[in-house]
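Re: [help] complex structure
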Amino acid sequence: NAGVTQTPKFQVLKTGQSMTLQCAQDMNHEYMSWYRQDPGMGLRLIHYSVGAGITDQGEVPNGYNVSRSTTEDFPLRLLSAAPSQTSVYFCASSSWTSGGATGEQFFGPGTRLTVL
Amino acid sequence: KQEVTQIPAALSVPEGENLVLNCSFTDSAIYNLQWFRQDPGKGLTSLLLIQSSQREQTSGRLNASLDKSSGRSTLYIAASQPGDSATYLCASGGSNYKLTFGKGTLLTVNP
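Output below.
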């Protein structure tokens, strides 16, 4: 199993450009999520999904869009990049319970994004 | 709102020492508590997951405990090695799929 994969590993954008960060998992997990990690701020949840066709906002969703058309893929779209979106982005997946809890989280290797 | 705190922010120990990393959380109504390791420039690697009904979990030289009533979890590393050097993060799993992370403890094990 490849686990959780992310592409690209590195990306440099100019202010105003748009792009999509890709995330895929092969563990048949229903729950997938996107985090950004910034120095001194820790990991912050951007968006999450509990299954195909179902997404919801996390703590810092502004400037980002997501969709979930398949169980395997959960892309993150930056609509109009801003320097404040310079960060390291992590995708994660896990199982979940009907009670609203997630199981063991598995993380991808991350995408390091710089917005000039 | 759940808050997760990890103290100390950094820890330096000599090789071979047994050590304890601390994680505290404000809301005891958690479903689980997970410990991760993060190497520089890498993603997070899951170490141990403790369900709310459990008191501890063990994997090799690692032992994690959970005390919901006091809002604390500890990660015990036995016989530390230089390869254990990394940032260790804990995260509490709550309702509505919420996972709250601490900011981590940077561990350095000196040969």
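The radius of gyration of chain B is 13 Å.
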